[in-house]
Amino acid sequence: MKTFDIIVIGSGAGLMVIEAALASGMSCAIIEKSKFGGTCLTKGCIPSKMLVYPADLVRESERADRVGIGFSKPIVDWDKISKRMWNQINYSTKMEQGLKQVKNLQVYKGIAEFTGKKTLRIKYDDNSFSEEIQSDLIIIATGAESFIPPIKDIENTGYVTSETFFGDKFPEKPWSSLIIVGGGAIGAEFAHIFSAFGTRVTIIEMKPRILSAEEEEISSVVTTEFENNGISVLTNNKVIASGRKGNSKTLTVEDTLTGERRLIEADEIFIASGVRSNTDTLKINNTDVQIDERGWIITNEYLETSQKGIYAIGDINGKYQFRHKANYEAEILIENLFYHGEKRKALYNAVPWAIFTWPQVAHVGMTEAEAKKSGKKYWVGKNYYSQIAGGIALGINRDSSDNGFVKIIVGENDTILGVHIVGPQASILLQPFVYLMNANHKCERKRMNEGNKLVYPPLGSFTPINDSMVIHPSLNELTAWVIDNIDWDK
Hints:
Elements: E1 2-3, E2 6-9, H1 14-23, E3 28-32, H2 38-43, H3 45-63, H4 78-89, H5 91-99, E4 105-109, E5 111-114, E6 119-123, E7 133-134, E8 138-140, E9 145-146, H6 154-157, H7 162-165, E10 177-181, H8 185-196, E11 200-204, H9 216-228, E12 232-234, E13 237-245, E14 248-255, E15 261-266, E16 268-271, E17 275-276, H10 279-282, E18 310-312, H11 323-338, E19 352-355, E20 361-365, H12 368-374, E21 379-384, H13 389-393, E22 405-410, E23 416-422, H14 426-437, E24 447-448, E25 454-455, H15 463-467, H16 476-480
Helix pairs in contact: 1-11, 3-4, 3-8
């Protein structure tokens, strides 16, 4: 049985931990069941943005006449768009080849299965198994997988998920029609993408509104814009069954308020109903690692599981499923495992995110409903794009259907409880508030100076930037990561 100083399962944020472990001289093993680079690089936020930006340009051109610019109908070169996207995804192959050349690193390609508390084996594609391997330090960073709701005959009918879309079910050209099951972030982004490329899109959502994690008025703005762009939004609708009708796929949906049923046809069905845990494939029951009722691994503030020596970061611990959150956790783990200073806690008071749909949505902190439920005193402020010169320059006025806004929720002592934005460049406009929400940590983070005395970062330092999650993938990373490029030797 091979023994390693550290075993990491998953090559997304887990790669950050491997790099730090290698730099510390440890013998390492990494296990990946799919493409290297994790969900974000190979089947998530990065390739989807290669489709979002062209879709944004289509929508921009359609509204350019309101500022005095006219365009002919955009020509969508799907082959070129696709090639750019696949070039990004295929960086995974170079990554895998590079990792296989690294000294002190053993790369395993297959599904990790626990055979004991600290032992694993790898199941290969041909159903054979590797020898057992072991370590006293194991990092679980396996992400999550698409949740498929119990729809009658759905496996026979066939469908697409974000995993298969960025795989063998990627279309040769945009579908003529598409049904999206789920009105969350993934559903909203793909609705924007394909509707901009000329696909007739229908969204089916069980809840009373799409983007249910967002402020109700933000959900309303997005719904209105979707409908203005030809997207049919069916809320309070449950999918009952699926089937085929000629060359089309069908879904039978039931209105949960009236009980009325209808049949919807489309070229393809895209299921975007959220994600589920993959701890079942890990055979986690062979360890003492505790999971919650939904299968997510339970971790404490130091990302430790209930079993000593096993940690979990990213989607698999069920605490916000974003790559920048996984990166944040990886950085904390690296600091705690490989640098012998004061242990750092993972804090989730200011987890930002953006939904790259049309219009763009961004969110950090509490919603107003959450603030009210908390019992805290709070106050709300709003500012619309039409109320500022920059918004007017974009052609937005008070009566524009896309007249988005910033909503801020503040508590006592002028603390920021939450900020919510819908409109152009929402992801960029949000990020400064994230830094401000973390500015109070300046007195909690200390380091040793040259005289071996504990010092605290002063006001105006870049510490809040380093302590904050930066929305990924967004242009905010350009300004935030410049801190990493400071040349301290000069």
